[in-house]
Structure formats: structure tokens, C-alpha cells
Amino acid sequence: MAVISREIIEQAKLWRRDFHTRPELGLKEYGTARTISELLSSFGLDVHTGIAETGIVATLRNGEGPSIGLRADIDALPIHELNEFDHISQHPGLMHACGHDGHTAILLGAARHLSENRHFRGTVYFIFQPAEENVGGGEMMVKEGLFERFPMQAVYALHNWPGLPVGEVAVSQGPMMASQDNFYITLTGKGCHAAMPELGADPVVAGAQLILSLQSLISRRLSPLEQTVISLTQLQAGEAINVIPETLHMSGTLRCLSRTTRETCWRLIEEYVQAVPQPYGVKGEVRWEFGYPVTQNHPAQAVILRDAAENAPGITQVHFNNAPSMAAEDFAYLLEACPGAYFWLGADGTTPSASLHSPRYDFNDDIIPLGIGVLATLVERELKA
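That's the Amidohydrolase sequence above. Prediction below.
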């Protein structure tokens, strides 16, 4: 069991609040990256910068042996913060609303602890990844040769998790998070006077029918055992209240927990978009914006992570093979390229945390020593001296 010093814990809390005051968007985390690099260098690590623009990999070697990677995300969100504490964002319109400031501080704390307490044999790569939010910095790092430049047997990451109590961890041998794709549908009919609809072809009525049909796709064209979400979130049509418009635009998101289901949904949505509007004399087209794949843990590494968490200081319960979330995470790209596992670290104290991506969210500093402890214990157990 790794015992984390009080000095490292308190320092990590200060780092976290400093990052919170200076949030930066994906691929623009220049100040954040500079601070991370300086700290890692001060720990005596070999630091490599400029991977996927602002990404960093730091190497800690302690003799011959296997190697593993630990990853944290470093970017913020374009959200105006509504909190009132001293460490509120100093960049209007930007905030750390997902806890990446805390993830970064935890990984820095683990790096310092392991550099000072080398109870392992092998190599640890500390991966500070930019642009997790929507941009896909994880995919960029993989494409730029992350695993070729820094060969590792496994890679691990965490995410703080509101809704799970402090002291608890959740990890599964399969999906942890869903895939994420966006679709943009255009329905084109024939505009006319609203009092004479028979002279036109109404894309609004066709769109209403398409929305209902897409919802029934999940219950009637897919197995009820396939967990899928199709949400229509945007509609735009018309200018004048007495005119049936020529076009209707709608968009939404698709979330799936397997690649097979994801590909089936791509095909079915395109089929519905073309077929459902036809009886109304309306033409349908769909454009896709393919996003993150399923965050799929590798079974062996999930067990290794579970066992490490069960032996980490302060962890009171480990939920194994828990239900996944339909949110998405670009650590999925790293897991497609390398064995590994991803876990949730409980964030709810006596007062429940605000939800992720809320303008009132703030990372719970009480879980910083728990996160450092799990990562350090994982290294010490997997890279046994």
C-alpha cells in the first residue's frame, strides 16, 4: 500500500486550485502545459513536450522491467463559471467544469510520490493529454506515435465521478463509457402558404414523424439488450408564422456500448432519414460527425486495477463490473491501441457534488490523496521491485 505524504497531498491541492483559476481550451493549454512541464522536471523526470500540440509525456525509470502509462486530461470547457470561492476561473467564459484540473493534480502528485519512493522496478510514463473535450486529443497523441515512442504494456486513467461517494471506486471488465456520434439531418420539401398546405410538401410534419420513428428504432429494430441512446437535440425551420418552410434541420447524438450496435445504428438512421419523409413528398439527407469510440476496458487490466484499488489507502469499496455511463471519453482511443483500464473515483462527500459540466461544479479536493494512492499502488503492484 502506497502511503502518500501530507506535503505532497497539500501541494497537489494547491496545484489543482491554481489550474482551476487558469482554465484553457483544448490544444490551447499552453500555460497549463508549461506549469506541468516545470513541475515534472523539478521531480527529476525526463519530460517530452509538444505531443498533439500541448501534450506531455514524462518518463520515470527505475531499473529494468516492464512499463505502464498513467494518463490525465488537462483541458477546460467553454462554460462561464457561477461559483464564488477564491479560486474561481480568472478566464471569463472558461472553466474546469469536468475536473481535469483535479486529474492533472492527482497525476502530478503520483509522479512526485513515485519519484521520491521508488518501490517498483521498471518504467512509468506520465501522460498529460490535451483536448479531451470534443477535440479528441487522445486520438491525436496515438496518431503521433505515443505508443511507438513510449512503448508500454498497459495504460490507465481515472475520472472523478459525482454520484459515487468519496472512498469508492468503480471499474468494469468491459465498457465504461459509450461511443459518441453526432448527426445532422436536412429535410427538404416545398414551401407554400400555411393556409394552403396541399400546394406544398411540409418538412415539419415529416420531421415530427421522423423524430418519433427514430425513437422506436431502439425498441423495435434493435435488441432490448443493446444499450443505445438516440437524442434529437436541435430543430430549426421556418421564418414566417404563416409560411410552411422549404427545409427543416435537425441534429442530435447517438451513444452506443458496442461497435456492432454503433454500425447498425448508422445504417438504420440513414435508412429512416431517407424512407420516413418520402410519403410526405420530402427528401431526407443525413451528415455524420463521427466521434469517440466505446471506452472499453481490457479484462485483465481491469482486474489489476480493481486489486490495486482494493489495496490503496482510503478506498472503502470497489464496485466491479458496474453499469457503464452513456457519456463519452476519448481515453477510448488509447484503449483501442494498448491494453488498459479506466476507473471512476467517487466525488460525493457529505454534500453531493454538482454534476459534471455544470457552471457550479468544483473538483472535490478530498479525493486527491485517494487518486494519488490508487495510481501509486497500481504502479507498485504491477511493477513489483
